[in-house]
Design goal:
mainly alpha, signal
Length: 592
């Protein structure tokens, strides 16, 4: 690889900055016009039209069968007896035949089920190996660039981080190789594995036992490595998520198919489900999106809704961890994610505005006070031997905080030092706190906190809450879709293109989710327009008034976002492409 190639690689690593999820109307106003389109047929490529020929054939077949049914007159008694005996005999014969057919059918179904399970296991196995191959290649390329551009600080890696990445490759290779040696490929039967074959020989058994020891130590090392922090520069920060995901994918495969000792499995499980482990999961998912990293773009930032963690294509392995938790453990992960996000955003707001940190903290004090108190309540629920549900008494300390947050959402009152960006964050976090409580305690969460029906069961509050939820969901699916488009383009650029059948299926699902939320928002917006009382309500809540105006416009431009996604998803390696309008840091002026 010559110096020109190395320089080109470095140039590809320099990406535009990303921004927090602040609507354009808050910043520089809204640009004009993206083309509208309501179908993702270009993405999914599937047709769902019915097949009338098949339905017609089925009807004709049934009609033909009925032609054999004829009227029969009365038969004599002897004929009736013969007919009855014949029927009785046929019943026994048919029963025997049916039992044999049923038995064979069950065997066939069982065989088919086993074949499906084996196919799924083989697919997971090959995906695990491919993930390792991709990660190993990326790490080796990174070491090469860092070594040949030693005078460029932006692409230098510290010695501790170099050792960590090298250890990731080494430990994964050891575990995968020994796994194949002692357990074989996914279709290897237990009695055909190396462990089973060497039990009769003392010498061979000693060899196998040593391999198993190396294997167990390798698995243990992998779990330690995934928890070890790194301090990679932005240009190589994506390696953190890639290596962690690769390790987690391997551990998930080994745990699923019982390929590690029980005590090691229990140790991993207890660590992940501890308060520290749950906080670690939340932090990894929130800090995976770094400005100026390889995949950084306008939409490359974390959100706090559960759907983000469960559906973002780059968080697949963390999503698997999350879905394997109990409900109260999931709740703590989401709470920690909200707390991490809130702390980061308020700190960032202070750094970019230059406001007095005391002023910023005063504006957000209702949030920080609630989070501090609520964390203690949630941690108590996870204490060993604690089986009681959280009670009204437990929540008494946060009751007033919740009421204040609800009132702020209804009628935000901010001082002159609070700009539109900070107000947006205050409103979003007010909603997200209440949304978390609803997920945690159910739709009657206000009563469970100890507040009366009148505090929240008003049409005004329910509508504003529904409005914030709907706009949040539309933004969520749009952010995931557009971030995925940039990811696909970068993977193609670095010769790791995602297969079209994979990205088409994924993007079709994301677009469908966005389209499903659209009618819900339109219903809420239409009601605000038609009901005379909402003119006065929106006059008191200028944030919701402006946000509604923003989204009334955005829903008309969603087709333009789809066009821009497809422009990146379909890019060919080596071909130049103009940056689609949606990916500008700020919306550019439109000429039409």
């Amino acid at each position: 690889m010559n110096f020109r190639t190395v320089t080109s690689l470095v140039a590809l690593l320099i990406l535009p900055d990303s921004s927090f999820c602040v609507p354009p109307f808050i910043k520089d106003g809204i640009a004009q016009g993206k083309g509208s389109r309501s179908s993702i047929e270009e993405v999914s490529g599937h047709s769902h039209e019915p097949r009338p020929d098949a339905i017609s054939g089925l009807i004709q077949s049934e009609d033909h069968n009925h032609e054999g049914i004829k009227k029969v007159g009365q038969a004599d008694q002897h004929g009736s007896i013969d007919l009855s005996l014949s029927r009785l005999e046929n019943q026994h014969i048919n029963s025997a035949i049916k039992e044999r057919i049923t038995g064979k059918s069950e065997d066939a179904l069982s065989l088919h089920h086993d074949q499906e399970k084996l196919a799924a296991k083989q697919a997971e196995f090959h995906s695990m190996l491919q993930s390792f191959a991709d990660t190993e290649e990326e790490i080796e390329q990174t070491f090469f660039v860092a070594a040949h551009l030693s005078n460029h600080p932006a692409v230098q890696i510290t010695d501790p981080d170099t050792k960590i990445l090298a250890s990731v490759v080494d430990r994964l290779r050891v575990v995968h190789n020994v796994l194949l040696s002692i357990h074989g490929t996914p279709d290897t039967l237990p009695d055909k594995s190396l462990i089973a074959k060497t039990q009769s020989s003392v010498r061979l058994k000693a060899f196998t036992d040593n391999a198993v020891k190396i294997y167990d130590e390798g698995v243990h090392d992998l779990f330690q490595l995934v928890q070890t922090p790194t301090y990679l520069p932005p240009a190589f920060y994506h390696l953190r998520l890639a290596s962690n995901s690769c390790i987690l994918q391997t551990l998930a495969y080994l745990r699923k198919y019982k390929l590690i000792p029980t005590d090691l499995e229990e140790s991993i499980d207890s660590t992940l489900k501890s308060p520290a482990g749950l906080e670690w999961i939340a932090r990894q998912t929130q800090e995976a999106f770094l400005p100026d990293s390889r995949y950084s773009n306008r939409f490359h930032h974390p959100l706090n809704e559960v759907e983000f963690l469960e559906n973002h294509p780059q968080l697949v392995q963390y999503s698997h961890l999350f879905k394997g938790l109990e409900k109260k453990e999931q709740d703590l992960v989401l709470f920690n994610g909200l707390k991490i996000s809130m702390t980061s955003v308020y700190r960032h707001t202070y750094q970019t505005t230059g406001y007095d940190p005391v002023t910023i903290c005063t504006a957000a004090k209702g949030h920080t006070d609630f989070m501090e108190k609520m964390e203690k309540i949630l941690l108590k629920e996870l204490q060993p031997g604690h089986h009681q549900q959280i009670t009204v008494e437990d929540l008494s300390e946060v009751r007033q905080d919740i009421l204040n947050i609800k009132n702020f959402l209804m009628e935000p009152v901010v001082g002159p030092e609070t700009d539109a960006v900070l107000e947006h964050h205050l409103m979003r976090y007010s909603f997200l706190i209440l949304d978390f409580l609803q997920r945690k305690f159910g739709p009657d969460y206000m009563e469970k906190v100890g507040l009366s029906n009148k505090e929240h069961n008003t049409d005004e509050f329910q509508t504003i809450f529904a409005f914030m939820k709907s706009t949040g969901r539309m933004e969520l699916w749009r952010v995931i879709l557009m971030d995925y488009g940039w990811f696909l383009m970068k993977r193609t650029t670095f010769n790791q293109a995602v297969p079209p059948e994979v990205w088409k299926e994924t993007s079709a699902s994301l677009w469908e989710q966005l389209m499903e939320e659209l009618p819900n928002y339109m219903r809420i917006s239409h009601r605000m327009d038609q009901d005379p009382k909402w003119e006065a309500i929106l006059g008191k809540n200028l944030y919701v008034h402006g946000f509604k105006w923003h989204w009334d416009y955005e829903i008309q431009t969603l087709g333009g976002y789809l066009d821009d996604f497809l422009a990146l998803a379909r890019v060919k390696r080596g071909h130049s492409i103009d940056l689609p309008p949606s990916y500008y840091l700020y919306d550019p002026p439109r000429t039409s």
